[in-house]
Amino acid sequence: MTAARVLEEKLASLYRAGGRIVGGVYLGKGQEAFSVALGLQLSKGRDIFAGLIRDQAGKLAFGEPMLDATRTYLGSALGPMRGRDGNIHRGRPKEGLPAMISHLGSMVSVVAGMLMSRRLQGRLGDAVGASAIGDGGTSTGAFHEGLNLAAVEKLPLIIAVANNQYAYSTPNNRQFACANLVDRAKGYGVEGYEVDGKDLLACLQVFQHAISRARAGHGPQMVVGSLLRLGGHGEHDDASYIPDTIKHSEHGRDCLQLAEECALERGWATVTELAALRESSQKEVDRALAQTSREPSPDPYKESWRALATSALVDEEK
Amino acid sequence: MPAIPILMPQLGESIAEATIVRVLIEPGQDVDEGQEIFEVETNKAVMTVTAPCKGKVGELTAQVNVSYPVGSNLGALEVSSQMAKDMGVDPIKSAPKPQSSSNHHEDGEPANLHFKISDADTIQERLPTVEPVVGGLPVPAGATGAHYISPRMRARMNELGLNASDLSAVAGTGAGGRVTVEDFEQFLRNLDAHRMTNASPMRIAVADSMRRSWSRPLATVGSPVVLDPLLAHRKKANPKPGPALYVIRALALALSEDTAVAGRLVGNRIVHPRAIDIGFAVEVADGVLVPTLREVEKKPLATLVEVYNKLVEQARSRRLPNEASRPGIATVTNFGTFGIVWATPIPLPEQNLVLGLGAGRKAPVWSEEVKTFIPVTEAELTLSFDHRILDGGGAGRLLARVAQLLQTPEKL
Amino acid sequence: MSLTYLEAIREAQYEALRRDPRVFIYGQDIGEFGGAFKATKRLSAEFPGRVLDSPISEDAMVGMAIGAAVEGSRPIVEMQFADFSSVGFNQIVNQAATLYWRTNVPCPIVIRLPSGGTPGSGPFHSQSMESIYAHYPGLVILTPATVEDAYHLLLDAVELEDPVIFCEHKFLYYHLKADALPTSTLPIGKARIARPGRHATVVAYSAMVHESIRAAEELQQDGYQIEVVDMRSVKPIDTGTILASVARTGRLLCVGESFPWGGVTAEVISRVVADGFHLLDAPPQRLNSKDTPIPYHPNLWRAHRPTAASIVAELRKLLKF
Predict the structure, then answer these.
(1) Domain end call among C123, C154, C178
(2) Count of domains for chain C
(3) What's the complex ipTM?
(4) Burial class of residue B342 in the structure, from the number of CB atoms within 10 Å of its CB (0-12 exposed, 13-18 middle, 19+ buried)
């Protein structure tokens, strides 16, 4: 959580300084607790985690190297997307990290397919696949189709809905008409949970439960975390449409600060330890950025410019 | 009693045919509308073919275990005239044999029962002619004969080193009389039947030069010139200038008064000559060479004789120096040496003017002084020119000026 | 042995399932029912658990196949009609087609599209989608015209590491028959001279190959020898074979059943003009369906798509140029 926050703050400041970041910056500030609670309880090599744009925390917790993030953001040719796709779309599909596309909802069925394939091959074991989505994403046909399919196939899929109240600028009341998003779970025939998305402990508990239910063969699990995005849709957006009353309410509190307070209260960490954690995260981020800065950018002359894996079928470039 | 056809119905989306499984009614039996007559099987399901209306089953031509396309005639149903009319179906004239659909796919556009069509055969006849979907081929405007040359023709001609003018003998069979590649290849094959010899390099050079020249609108004017003063002057001269040299010198002097008439038109501009260099045609083996005399307006006639004679000799032996091979701004040709009185020579491609001198002959000229005809030696002077640059009037004035200058040869 | 085009597709899927345990088939009504056209007849019984009925969710069906391919499966997705693949369009062109390029992970899926018109099928059960998918990089578009190709190209498609849009023509399902299947055929990406000739070239694919051959047979009466090139795969496109044919004939007509704007026929002509301008003795022409939705009534439908008659008319104009 701390590392994600430090990394994203650094990326945001680089973005504002201009020049070094390729493309936009979309932050998960305020959503780290919900994201990390999921990522932490999945295991890389066994499970699947299809994070979206605000899942930096979850991805780090799942085991994605920090260099993947800095390399894609800073446009290094050595990143997993090699300059062909950007920052938040990064992924390593063969390592359980599907690379999202911009079309929301469309990763749900992909994760379902990954699970389906493993089951057909008899190697599903107790693996689960998680697909992150936001309140806006649940309005897409792809989300509906994907979740319905996963439910029909009874796949061990975790749908983590981060309801951050705004899809870009559109509030919940213009997005869906049900009283609560979790009500939808019943319609799909899946088990649903609601959680305070800024409460790390609560999130850990609910995901632990949902994941174990999925592993035990109870089909898809839908977890809705209620939280607030503590910033704009991206760093280009000042989120002026979010009323101050919400920003300053209990609901607008920072999940990281809450988690730190909780750790202090319960004696799990001291102020010094928290400061040390922040400092070590800072160093890790600096190291990653320093290394990335020394790496080459993609070279259009060395790029293969072929979209097919079968080279024999590629039209020869004239 | 009229008979209407029992047709294989459209049994579902994209079902094109069905196989007869059982016949459920004997011929001669009365049936009500909707009563089942055949049991059929499609790839999707077993279904039935029912009577389209009340009637008496006639001959059932369809056979069990045979597959029929949708719209095929499976048999006849005898109905009242009124009923036949109400159904909007053409009665059967003579019972047609149904076509089995096995082993053929031509018949793959079956009719649809819902559309009151009698049987597959008459449908084909009744169909309006299908208009092609795309419009007419673009024929280049005003294309006739060999004018339009397709990319392939162009490539083929380049390959063989041919020009559009080489195709003048080919009768095109394409749109607007255009010569197609097939016409062209046929033309080449036909040529094989003739005796053919290789054209000399000189012939090819002349041909190329004339072909390029002919791309312009050329015109010719002519006017007689009295040669007696010239001939008298020539008799006394030593060395003797050739008659053409007098004309060359006269032309140079005339042009020096206005060089624009010897200009060339390039785009919308007249390109004026830089120097008054005049060429003259010399017949050589299998062609013509045109050596050039430089800056003729600056050189009196007497000084030109020697170099002129030398150039004639060099041309005939095909040893012209480079300096003399560069084209001038106009050419003089003395076609009179062949006994020709009048001609329309073609100027060189890079020149606007060619001045011709015809054969001299005795002619009576009326003299106002002595009120009688007196004999003079006269020849036709012709001027061929690019009509884009010069008109008849200008050409006539130039000719008149040359003729005038030739009347005082001592001044040349 | 006699085999229809549809049976060849079924046999190819049987063979693929038998040969490769990674293969499974996913689609609507394809299980016990055997598919709307019976292309998977009895396969679910013969390969239990590998021929699965899907919900009516074209987007999720394709998304699922993509995920499965990432994990090492070789899914075949049956669209009930090519027309419905538009619902899965996003997954096909944005996910499947980009996956290898973006992540270096191949996406070996085959999406079967029962394509093209049959009488009385109307605007939403008759479409030909090859042109629209061919527009996107990262997809292979196969358009078999023969029973042999229906079989071998489908088997080749399953073996390919790339996503394949397999356009099988419904009009050929029952009407096209072969006595036997050859053991091998041309590879993906190679066109075939379906009929040799020297006066004009018709480039076609799928059902239009047969319309073109019928047109060629009619013109044979008048002494014209029309060469018909069966593209087999519209992407990759075998420009070499097409150019070689145009080199023989000098005249080109390209026939496709899909809509006229842009598309496969336009691509063929653009390539021939670019690379073979010097081969053309007449302006190259193309013939497509009309630029309207596909009509329901057979009378309208016949006039909407290219037929042997309209191909003959077009060829006559081309031959007269």
Answers:
(1) C178
(2) 2
(3) 0.95
(4) middle
